[in-house]
């Protein structure tokens, strides 16, 4: 077996984890799930889910990954529980499933950068979306996006992922802040902020049953949980890193970028008079609405290029993390070189993504299935393993490098054992109910 790689620096790990977390989940999913699930009411449930369920679950993945220094499947046998490998397999499959349509949306984003530069979507944003979102052109765009991802992963942890995300993550934050400042000057800004930030309590209570599964699913998706990513990334971390602080940095930065996305998107939508609850209803309508916004304001081309450029960088750094999961598993187990593995797995992903690229109805179905079934199921089983099967050993691992955090650690262990398990079970029941019954 070849010598296992590690992160060159601690900050390299944190940035790569942030690079994974910050992605289309923040910039595309979060605004559109907010719009279709009651606006600020959704935001409240989502923030609670991130803090109470997402953060503890992330620490669970971190402790498992660093303890075993293995890919997400072999981690379970390393802990002495071979039969639980199935949970690792489920997590890898969940990631694979999500990445298949993620690449398609990544392809759309590339088309939108081009469309901003040429002004192609300015006259008729809806028609432009129709033309680029599905069909042979979308398949080509998907392949291009995936090609970049494969190339970076083929270069490896230090030269590829670490170097790329070190530049990407700071640029995303700076550019989003710049956009938010510009958007604040638009006439619809106040109305946009109100929709995004002031929750209607009646909506929250009346629709809790349908909002909660999406809010919890969003928390998992946005933090890259349940896809074996954080297990894999933390397997390259040293024993003296403080995983609790690292995890908190990821959660905080990821939340900031999500909030910035809302602060950018909703004022634009309300400035152009879009009915946010319906115009942004579908997976693609957000592209249509934002594009319409860029088409109707001064310097729209420039802002369009910057906005979709940020989205592309964020999407790439996430997709890289997910491909790495599978490549890492294969790299640990077979004597095949990283570049060959990256290309082979890339081709499989491409094929799985073709239905989503040919028809957005498929993409929506893949997406809903991921949110309502795959993600909660994968996180639930992982949490039961770390909390109940491993328990104390996971706690000790979490505290290595975080010696002053014993009380926090104990609270964490009981939170994942009780609160997270119950919350995720409830989410799963609601989600399955919504999807199939
Ligand atoms: N946390 C990522 C996001 O919010 O976009 C989720 C993700 C999806 C990561 C797909 C990686 C990926 F390939
Ligand atoms: Na995210």
TrEMBL record:
SUPFAM superfamilies: SNF-like. Keywords: Membrane, Transmembrane, Transmembrane helix, Transport. PROSITE patterns: NA_NEUROTRAN_SYMP_3. It comes from the Archaea. Its main location: membrane. Pfam families: SNF. It is a multi-pass membrane protein. InterPro entries: Na/ntran_symport (IPR000175), SNS_sf (IPR037272), YocR/YhdH-like (IPR047218). The chain crosses the membrane at residues 7-28, 40-62, 83-102, 138-157, 169-190, 210-231, 243-270, 302-323, 343-366, 373-391, 411-432. It is found in: Membrane. CDD domains: SLC6sbd_Tyt1-Like (cd10336). GO terms for cellular component: membrane. This is Sodium-dependent transporter.
């Amino acid at each position: 077996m070849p010598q296992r790689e590690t992160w060159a620096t601690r900050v390299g790990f944190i940035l790569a984890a942030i690079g994974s977390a910050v992605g289309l989940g923040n910039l595309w999913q979060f605004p559109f799930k907010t719009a279709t699930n009651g606006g600020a009411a959704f935001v409240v449930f989502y923030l609670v889910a991130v803090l109470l369920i997402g953060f503890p679950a992330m620490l669970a993945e971190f402790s498992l990954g660093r303890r075993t220094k293995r890919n997400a499947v072999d981690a379970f046998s390393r802990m002495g529980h071979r039969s639980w490998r199935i949970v690792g397999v489920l997590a890898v499959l969940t990631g694979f499933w999500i990445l298949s349509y993620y690449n398609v949306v990544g392809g759309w984003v590339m088309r939108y950068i081009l469309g901003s530069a040429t002004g192609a979507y300015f006259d008729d944003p809806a028609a432009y979306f129709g033309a680029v979102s599905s069909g042979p052109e979308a398949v080509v765009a998907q392949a291009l996006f995936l090609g970049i991802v494969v190339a970076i992963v083929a270069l490896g942890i230090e030269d590829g992922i670490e170097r790329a995300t070190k530049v990407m993550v700071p640029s995303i934050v700076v550019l989003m802040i710049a956009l938010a400042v510009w958007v604040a000057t638009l006439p619809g800004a106040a109305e946009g902020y109100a929709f995004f930030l002031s929750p209607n309590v009646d909506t929250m209570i009346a629709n809790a049953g349908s909002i909660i599964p999406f809010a919890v699913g969003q928390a998992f998706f946005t933090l890259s949980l349940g896809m074996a990513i954080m297990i894999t990334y933390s397997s390259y971390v040293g024993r003296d890193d403080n995983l609790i602080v690292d995890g908190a940095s990821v959660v905080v930065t990821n939340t900031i970028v999500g909030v910035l996305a809302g602060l950018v998107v909703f004022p634009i939508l309300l400035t152009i008079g879009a009915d946010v609850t319906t115009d942004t209803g579908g997976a693609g309508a957000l592209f249509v609405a934002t594009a319409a916004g860029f088409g109707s304001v001064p310097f729209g081309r420039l802002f369009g290029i910057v906005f979709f450029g940020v989205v592309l960088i964020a999407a790439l750094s996430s997709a890289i993390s997910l491909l790495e999961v599978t490549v890492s598993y294969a790299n640990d187990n077979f004597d095949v070189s990283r570049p060959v593995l990256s290309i082979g797995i890339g081709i499989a992903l491409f094929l799985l993504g073709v239905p989503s690229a040919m028809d957005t109805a498929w993409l929506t179905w893949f997406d809903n299935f991921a949110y309502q079934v795959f993600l909660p199921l994968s996180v639930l089983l992982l949490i039961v393993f770390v909390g109940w099967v491993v328990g104390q050993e996971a706690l000790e691992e979490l505290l290595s490098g975080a010696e002053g955090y014993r009380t926090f650690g104990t609270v964490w262990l009981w939170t994942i054992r009780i609160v997270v398990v119950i919350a995720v079970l409830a989410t799963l029941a609601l989600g399955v109910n919504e999807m199939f019954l």
